[in-house]
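Message: A physicist's question: would you kindly supply an amino acid chain plus fold tokens?
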Amino acid sequence: MDRAALLFELYPDIEKVYDLAQDLRNIFEKTTDKIIELSRFAKWHEKVNQSGFK
């Protein structure tokens, strides 16, 4: 079992935060249109709010 899988198994919150961070990174790396970027960022922000993390 690799380290990340073991870490995520032991601490599922870390996996959730990691996924949120990856989603945010993808928004800014793969989006060139500012309007689309803002829309995706708003959806990401709502996802963060629903996750319960501060």
